[in-house]
Design goal:
The chain has 11 helices and 12 strands. By secondary structure, the chain is α/β, with parallel strands linked by helices.
Length: 261
């Protein structure tokens, strides 16, 4: 893979960053059923010993991300960058402004846990200061999406923010956090000059934006945007990528190529 040569040429100053769901772990009906294979976990462990920075940036909480990936020697930015769990740390550091809204978000989600939502089989995932409403695999996905569109309007009326993903609506605090900010913070702390990010969904475009800007202004000598193609992912993931791969297996081959030398 020619696009990977800048990282292979200077691993100590290089960063390998990626999303988890849809990139390291296949998308599944229930988030708690997701699994990262032992092969992928071993590859990440090998990469952490060779490259300057290896990190996962996820919408999951940082502790849940580490549980899922199963590698203690890498960094995890959770809740789309609101949390940072450093290698070997017992607890993540959390954006205090984001954390202060947790009670409001939880109350909002609890009040919407209604018989109607249960009949539609919408599942509510507690992600700390973020509430995720999943409708993947429900009997009537169109009806569930329609109800969640109304729920999103209700959230915004209560000064919360919303984000749509792959058959999931997230209700979040009105505090700006995104994967682009997480990328910038991780790279600055590590002093990385070359970086790769692998993503498959809309939230990953913020990370693409950050790497493109850092490459454009000379902060990074090189950046590689890896688009993980899927039936449900946004077209921009493929259109903007320097390297396009198919699904988790495709990204696993990227990790294996980086670990080979």
């Amino acid at each position: 893979m020619e696009a990977l040569q800048p990282l292979l040429a200077d691993p100590e100053r290089s960063a390998i960053l990626c999303d988890i769901d849809g990139v390291l772990a296949p998308i599944v009906r229930r988030a708690e059923e997701a699994r990262v294979s032992q092969h992928v976990s071993l590859l990440l462990s090998r990469l952490a010993r060779r490259f300057g920075l290896v990190a996962c940036i996820s919408g999951r909480s940082a502790t849940d991300a580490r549980r899922l990936v199963g590698v203690g020697g890498i960094a995890y930015a959770g809740s789309h960058g609101a949390e940072l769990l450093e290698p070997g740390a017992a607890r993540p550091r959390t954006n205090e402004a984001f954390q202060r809204w947790e009670g409001r978000v939880k109350r909002f989600a609890s009040e919407r846990d209604t018989p109607e939502l249960r009949r539609l089989r919408v599942r509510i995932e507690d992600k700390g200061p973020i509430a995720a409403f999943h409708w993947r695999g429900v009997p009537d996905e169109e009806a569930a999406r329609s109800r969640l569109e109304r729920l999103a309007a209700e959230a915004e009326e209560e000064e919360l923010t919303t984000h749509w993903g792959r058959k999931v609506l997230e209700v979040r605090p009105p505090v700006r956090v995104d994967k682009g900010q997480a990328v910038r913070s991780l790279l600055e702390t590590a002093g990385s000059r070359i970086a790769l990010f692998g993503g498959d969904d809309t939230t990953d475009l913020d990370a693409f934006d950050a790497l493109a800007e850092l490459r454009g202004d000379g902060t990074l000598e090189a950046a590689v945007l890896v688009g993980v193609r899927s039936d449900e992912g946004p077209a921009e993931i493929v259109e903007r990528a320097d390297l396009v791969v198919d699904g988790v297996d495709g990204f696993t081959r990227v990790l294996a190529a980086l670990a080979r030398r």
